[in-house]
Amino acid sequence: MHIYLDNAATTKPCEECVKAVSDMLTEHYANPSSLHGPGIEAMKEVISARQAIADALGTEKDEIFFTSGGTEANNLALFGAAHANRRKGNRIVTTAIEHESVLQTIDELEKEGFEVIRLMPDSYGRITEEQIDEAINGDTILVSIMMINNEVGSVMPVSHISKAVKRAKAPALIHIDCVQAFGKVPVRPAKLGADLVTITAHKIHGPKGVGALYIRKGARILPRTFGGEQEKKIRPGTEPSPLIGGFGAAVSCLPSLSEQSRKIKEINEYAQAGLKKIDGIKFNSADDASPYIINICVPTFMRSQTIIQELSANYGICVSSGSACAKGKRSHVLTAMGLPDDVIDKSIRISLSRFNTKEDIDALISALTELIEKHPKE
């Protein structure tokens, strides 16, 4: 039995999600684009899921477009927005600590000739409103900044972006990656001033393989794939209706965000208090970071990957060294924060979900204490 503290990478599907996926696979398995009875029934389930997500975001259901996950949604948003608006300007503004699916997409757009401004964070992964103001000018066609950083939990001033865009009289579309925010804090595209918002199912106890992109009605982006009428041709292809059904179920059973936030903050504070008792622990996450993520440097001669393997193999505890998509590479987030190599190489991420308990934290602290005693920093 594992103690799972790697929820920023993925979450355990909730019972409601598992049941919905199973029902779609066994009862509503027809192609939702088919016009016969079973196909129509399958489409009703897809529509229901789309409505559940729209309700959670405070949007219209026809502004929700299903994708294979957050990575595809980010690619679609960035390539689609940049290519649709390239005649209006040439500048793209982002940060140096975005998810790889944004960073690598932006790199490709830069190769195509777009000017890219990458905002650098402070030593806790924070970006300021002033940086955003300075970066956006009248030639800016796209701004893409995540709401909550996936490695250190820093909260970005994303609601300020629309003010900066208006002040600069820029033709920019605003994209916000809300993968680590949706289901944890209120996400309302209208209040954020966002044209495009990325979310995904497997961070909120839904299935892997499905996400969604909110596209504000009236915002124009170009598709990346072709070959069907699904999703209004923005993302064609047979809808993965079992996954979509599971996504909708996970969204529908999200608890009260205020109650969930209170519980997570309590566990976070409990964890920080315990971790601070371990001599030499350094916190890479700021005090005002998302309570769902705690990034620390462990005082041992072992590197992050070895610490993770030791915790898993000997204590049954699952944590990570950062984004799972990085496949063990040195964290670009901690590097951009200007942290020393010795800190980066010994840092781990603890990430919580509503199913974690203080007992999980007790086990982690006990394991880290024992691990450090056995393998102290040289």
Features:
378 residues, alpha/beta, seven-stranded mixed sheet, three-stranded antiparallel sheet, 13 helices, 12 strands, 39% helix, 13% strand, globular
Number of helices: 13
Q: Classify the helix fraction into a percent range.
A: 25-40%
Poorly predicted ranges (pLDDT <50, ≥5 residues)?
none
The major beta sheet can be summarized as: 7 strands, mixed
Order of helices and strands: EHHEHEHEHEHEHEEHHEEHEHHEH
Compute the CA-based radius of gyration: 21 Å
Describe this structure in words.
The protein has 378 residues and is an alpha/beta fold. It is built from 13 helices and 12 strands. Strands 2-8-7-6-5-3-4 form a 7-stranded mixed sheet, sandwiched between helices. α10 packs across α13.
List the helices and strands and how they pair.
Blueprint: E1 3-4, H1 15-26, H2 37-57, E2 64-67, H3 70-84, E3 91-95, H4 100-111, E4 115-119, H5 129-135, E5 140-144, H6 161-168, E6 173-177, H7 189-192, E7 196-200, E8 211-215, H8 241-252, H9 257-276, E9 282-283, E10 293-297, H10 304-315, E11 317-318, H11 332-336, H12 341-344, E12 347-351, H13 358-374
Parallel strand pairs: 1-11, 3-4, 3-5, 5-6, 6-7
Antiparallel strand pairs: 2-8, 7-8, 9-10, 10-12
Helix pairs in contact: 1-8, 2-8, 3-4, 9-13, 10-13
Give a concise summary:
Helices cover about 40% and strands about 15% of the residues. It is of the alpha/beta class. Strand 3, helix 4 and strand 4 form a beta-alpha-beta unit.
